[in-house]
Amino acid sequence: MSKSATDRLTNVIAKWIAMNCRPINIVEDEGLTEVLQIASNDPSYKPPCRTTKPGTLLINAPEQFLKVANDWGIENKISTIGTDSAANMLAAMRALPYEHIACNAHILQRTITVCLDSSGFVGVLAKCRKIVGHFKQSPASTTELNQQQVALGKKSDQLIQDVPTRWNSTLAMVSRLLCNREAVQATLDQQNHRLVLPTEAEWAKLQRLELLLEPCKYVTELLGGEAYVSCSVVLPAFRHLYRVMDITDDDPAYVVKFKNAFQKDLAARRANGNEIWFEVATALDPRFKDLKCLPREKREQVWTILENMLQAAEPRRADSLQPSTEDDGPAQKKRRSELLLGSDSDSEDGIESGELQRYRAEPSISIDDCPLQWWYAHSGVYEKLSVLAQKYLASPATSVPCERLFSLAGHIVQKKRAALLPENVTRLVCLSDWLRKKK
To answer: What is the mean pLDDT of residues 355-373?
Structure first.
């Protein structure tokens, strides 16, 4: 076939896959290749590979998004769109008239991955992976390890292998190994193996690494959990991480290297983020309105921005603000309070008038209280501010819950189940989500 005929066939194949929700890897089926070669009377024709981008099929993503928003009647109700930091997502967002919120959980985890690869922990982590793999591949060794754990009065826990795509799995592997260090060494002492065990200095490295990654785990779970997380939590959470990564005099060289890399990489990834949106959202959260997560000289700038917004806003009651019903256990509440609340006690003197001045004079609410509930109760007193609060506090700080649904749908719509009707896929996804929440 001529190149133009090949291109047309490639686009038709792509359109068929897209319209009928077929898995993209169907183009790798040998049977499909044979069918197309016979139908085209060209035995040399090969279907497009999975990475082919057919020109005529590419739909302008921003235009398509706006069309869908218009069809659903929500084009005037959208304030922000959250995505991960992939280049194609960022390119699409630049062409849309909405504010972009990058997924902060993705940003943090990418920073951790880069820092682990470029710091002094690579060698000892490689030893840990080989130790865990030794026990994972041998049921007999695992049984011996369990016996040693019982003899030492410990719980018979399995070792954990870290996975590059599973967040916090490196911390889980290190923590489990440190907890079972004696049992692991006692078991290996009775075996013939070629493993190179960590030295005392390397075990100390792992303990340091555990201390560094534990706060990162908490912030990741806070920003990437199932519960809704407002943008107002982002700056206090990252401020805590920067405090943890402050370099002290007693830090070993490898810890200093990790902390330097962490601060530099995280700052670079957040440099192009919508920082002003996060700052205004933090100011509108009654839990964090003291803005202790920001430098002193920047706090008044945020209030000035908010005052300008308030003067331009039209008064309207935010009757649609809904209180949150999420509740955490006592330990989680205590830990969240310790991590997110600042410790300095300075105060700000505002010169604004009207609603903003009264709001700044309000006492901050507890870290355990719901900011949306507070604004719902005070919407009659702060008519303009409550509208802004609804807009800024309603923006989620992460895209993780949505991506979990995408992953769930991906497990359902597999190659051998590609003929499922869209409505049946929707039913299965909804039932799975509802049943998990019911438990």
So the answer is: 90
